[in-house]
Amino acid sequence: MRPSKKPLWIALAVIAALALILTVAGPSLRAALTSHEETAASAEADYNDTDVHFLGMMVPHHEQAIEMSDVLLASDVDDAQVRDLAQRIKDGQERENTQMRTWADEWGIQEDMEHHSKHIANGMFHPEQLNEFASLSGDELRTAFLEMMHFHHAHVINMTQDEIDRGAYAPLREMAQEMVDVQTAEMGEMEELLGYTPN
C-alpha cells in the first residue's frame, strides 16, 4: 500500500501560506516593530536630569506657597486684592503640582522626588518660620504674606530658568516658562500692594 501524499501537500500548503503572509505583512510588521523601538527610545530621551531635579525641587516649593496661601485665606485679612492674589497662587500651583506629580509617576522617579522633598532651598522657609507666619493676623499677616511670597517667588526663578534653558521635556519647559511669566507678574502685584519693593 502506497503511503498517502496528503500530509506532504498540507505541509507545503501551510509553508506557502506563511510565505505569502510574511511577504505581504512583513514590511508592516517590521515597521511596527521599528516604530515601537523608536517610541521606547524616544520615551527614554524625553526627559533628562534637569527635568528630574526640577520636579523634585519645585513640587515642595509649590507646597509651601499653597500652605502660605491657605493661611492667608483662612485668616481675618480682609484686603480683597491680597485675598484674590493668594487664591490665584493656590489654584495655579495646585494645578501645576498635580501635573508635575503625574509626570513623576509616569517616569518612575518617586525615589528622586522623595530625596528632594527634604531639601529647603530656592527661597523656601524653615518650619519654624512658617509656624511664626501662621501665628500672625490682620495687617501683620497681610504684610508678611506679601513680603515672604515675594521672596519665595524671586528665589525660585533662577532654578526655573535653568529648566527652560537645559530641560529636555518640552511640556515641562513650557510650564516652567509660564511659571516665570506668572510669578514675575505676581511679584509686581505684591510690590504695588506693599507700596515698595521688598529686599
Automatic annotation (TrEMBL):
Pfam families: DUF305. InterPro entries: DUF305_CopM-like, Ferritin-like. This is DUF305 domain-containing protein.
